[in-house]
Amino acid sequence: MLKLGDFNTLRVTRFIDYGAMLEAGDVGEILMPKSYVSPELKVGDDVRVFVYLDQEERLVATTETPLARVGDFAYLRVNWVNRYGAFLHWGLMKDLFCPFREQRKTMEVGKSYIVHIYIDRETGRLVASAKVDKFLQPAEPHLYPRAKAADLLIWQKSPLGFKVIVDNRHSGMLYDRDLLLSLHTGDRIEGSVIQCRPDGKLDVAAGSIGKARFRDFADTLLQELRAAGGTLPFCDKSDAADIATRFGVSKKTFKRAVGTLYKAQKIELHEGSITLKA
Questions:
Q1: How far is CA 9 from CA 51, 221, 262, in A?
Q2: Over the stretch 37-56, which tens digit does the pLDDT of each residue have?
Q3: How close are the terminal C-alpha atoms of the chain, in Å?
Q4: In whole angstroms, what is the distance from residue 116 CA to residue 231 CA?
């Protein structure tokens, strides 16, 4: 079954002046414009394409990779607006439409917004909505135990920290008290689940938590040492703020990682610095 607003693997049936025609099951053939047809492509070849609607609302295939696809939440920039709504850049020739009724506040050209991409049931068109709350689903506690790794999309600032979208599906909160990184709307980071609340929303942390946090940062610190030529001007007496600015972790995490590497005989400790062991 053809997936609109997503990637499909389709077979070349014939070539015409405008490009290649691809077999698309129940909908018949769809065009892949000439600009996307490689010289080596031939009839009978399978090609992975993204399928969307052109300016005339006809199915069309492209080998370009969009910034997001149907079902995704994404941070997209407004290219232009008209009396019907805003048109967002999503990496394809035709911009993505966000009608006024799906805007939380009037979108402005040049600004970016978190939106959800979906197929409008009434028109069959690919559209975006900035009213992302209605597309978020409660998380199930048994699927989100403490310390489970998760992908986080930074959504919006709140008095407590940042609202985030977890694993492209759930609502979460990243608290200021757990933050050492400078974050902005649209950033994507790796995080971990702290807890799943009764309402299905998730409390999350940036990076790993528990023992995994120390193991992960020990590996990171080792990489940082190698990249710096073997020496870093930090030690267990370094200022916590300097450590957070340089590495994005707490002083406790830094000291635990240093201890791990020292016990493993991978580093040497000096007054005011650490070095890789020869």
A1: 10, 42, 51
A2: 999 999 999 999 999 999 99
A3: 59
A4: 45
> Does residue 129 have a pLDDT over 70?
yes
Q: Which amino acid is at 258?
A: V
d(Cα 154, Cα 183) in Å, to the nearest integer? 8
Identify the band that residue 90 occupies on the pLDDT scale cut at 50, 70 and 90. Answer: very high
Is 258 within 8 Å of 219 (Cβ atoms)?
no
Closest CA to 154 of 117, 183, 111, 115: 183
Q: Is the pLDDT of residue 204 over 70?
A: yes
| CA angle, 159 then 160 then 166, to 5° | 120
H/E element holding 1? none
C-alpha–C-alpha distance, residues 12 and 61, integer Å: 11
5 CB burial (10 A radius; 0-12, 13-18, 19+): buried
- Percent of the residues in the chain that have a pLDDT greater than 70, as a whole number: 95
Contacts 24+ apart (CB under 8 A), 240-248: 244/180, 247/217, 247/220, 247/221, 248/180, 248/181, 248/206, 248/207
| Per-residue confidence band for 63, with pLDDT thresholds at 50, 70 and 90 | very high
Burial class of residue 186 (count of CB atoms within 10 Å of its CB; 0-12, 13-18, 19+): middle
The one-letter amino acid at 251: K
Is residue 35 within 8 Å of residue 57, measured between CB atoms? no
Average pLDDT of the residues in 84-112? 97
Residue 267: name the closest of 216, 217, 225 by CA: 225
Cβ count near 184 (within 10 Å): 9
Distance from C-alpha of 126 to C-alpha of 195, rounded to nearest angstrom: 35
Sequence-ordered alpha helix ranges (H) in 117-275: 211-227, 240-247, 251-263
Tell me the two tokens of residue 28. 């018949």
- Name residue 53's beta-bridge partners: 59
